[in-house]
Amino acid sequence: MALEHRRMAPAYAVQYAMRLLETVDRHGCGVSGEQLSRELRVPVGDLAPLLTMLRREGYLSVLPDGAFVVGESLLLLGTTNRKQALADKIKGILNRLRDEVGAAVYFSRYDDGEVRIVDYADGPAAPRVNEWVDFRSAAHASAVGKCLLTQLDQDGRRDHLSRHKVARLTSKTITNEKVLFTKLDSQPATVPTLDLQEYAVGTVCAAVPVTVGSAVCCLAVSMPLDRAHRLRAAADTLNKRAAPVLLSLAF
Asked: Which of 41, 44, 210, 216 has the largest count of CB atoms under 10 Å?
């Protein structure tokens, strides 16, 4: 079956990336872009962005003759040190995203019924949000929490809120559980989840889902209110750059 020649959402891009990497791995000693094009039945020009991303993230390397082979990142993620390799990989992605969007960036996941900030990248010009209320207790208000909750089923959401009651953190916080569930249900998977001063006054955030298999994760960005006009563009960048994170989790 030929790949579809269209702009792909991160999850679809990862599926195609996996197929491409499997093809490269089968060749072992290297394969040209033209050969990949023939085997995957995709024009070379349409493969180029995917090949560029895989090279940038270290999943592919190029031999002197121009042939592609599997790269160091893929090899490391297959070793016994996978956990550290994955952490290092995600940290590098977050650092690059922080520099690209000019704001603090976070990678979070839902683990054992709790919201967990796995890692983040901030800096003097990209301050992270002040965690004045434990994020585990503020899923109903934060972009990270709401993005993770949207990926749970109704029972999972109810279980979470039975342990972490909705509380008013600012005047904009949703404290009605029915209203919250309605908003979560109506949240399109392709649209960033927003927190417009619901968690903290003076801070705005956006999060995009990063889901592979049973893993419930997200990428998020936060910035001071006076930079709110940049939030949507920053969230769109996170969505476009989510594929490397998804790919790391897929191995």
From this structure: 210
